[in-house]
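Reviewer 2 asked us to include a model.

Predict the structure of this chain.
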Amino acid sequence: MLDIELPARDKAWDILNRYTKNPNLIKHGLAVEAVMRAIAVQHGEDPDLFGLVGLLHDFDYEAYPEIGEHTIEGGRILAAEGFPDRIITAIRSHVTENGLPRDTLLEKAIFASDELTGFVVAVTLVRPEKSLSEVTPRSVIKKLKDKGFARGVNRADVYAGVEGLGVPLEDFITFIVDALKPHAAALGLNP
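Predicted model (structure tokens):
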């Protein structure tokens, strides 16, 4: 683990809210932050580092939604704000079209967490009680096979992400659900 000076989470939160106005995108950042922190704890890594990458991974999406701009422009903004290259590279690596290798756990984790966390939240929101307790790996996998559900989710990236982490899809779905439960209220979900 590299010893780097990390910006405060408050600074990242400010940047997220400065560039992101859609409350659902803000909640997505919070959800991915929670999952990334849990991955860091599981692997003995720095939860603050992983959390910052999760919180900020899509902060520039509203301003720069186009492939070739999303995460590239955001990386420039983060560099100007004093964020270390390790964070910027990890964020840029979560967009497949950027063509960056995912060599570190941080890079693999953000790629695996982004799409699947958003998908798990979408599955939760269509459950009768909007409760994470209603979500099972089976229910998520069933919805993954339904191409009409959450069409914006890149299924190939979901499968490639869990493969890159070296975990079974079912196990990572359970992991995501468990990581989100303590944050359910902030995400507009029930635990």
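The two ends are 33 Å apart (CA to CA). Residues 93 and 99 are 7 Å apart (CA to CA). We have added this to the supplementary material.
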